[in-house]
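On clarity, I found the account of how folds are encoded harder to follow than it need be. For illustration, here is how one protein appears when written out as sequence plus structure tokens.
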Amino acid sequence: MAGNNVTRFLVANKVEFELYELPKEKLGAEKTAELLQVPIWIVYKTIVVKRTHSGKPILAIIPGDRSVDLKLLAQAINEKKLLLPTEEAAEELTGLQAGGISPLALINRGFQIVLDETALKLKAIHISAGERGLNLKISPLSLIALTKARIAPISLVKV
């Protein structure tokens, strides 16, 4: 199975994970869950969020069946207002393709990372492994330890 910088980083840090190969296209959480044959609420997506002033963007990690709540996220990180960039802008800000944006691929790049508190109820979650077509299953506690993610209620059920 193919590896990349993220998987090498996890192996070097002796972190348990499972790697899954998927089609190398932008799939979305729903299709990813279907292909992995797992519930959508354990497939987490990384949403790039911009500050209204200068500063590195925030990476909001939320369940696939939910949407990021910018007000809750702003409260969690003591910001007044946050913005969702376009997909193209998110790719430019991270250097990664949409569908392959991963907090593990952006460690030590200055991004503030916030993980939705729902992850703490799960033994493992699925996230992107840093490129389209690679997904990994990892313990939320390992993800928190590696990324120094803040935990907060930052998502809402989609209506």
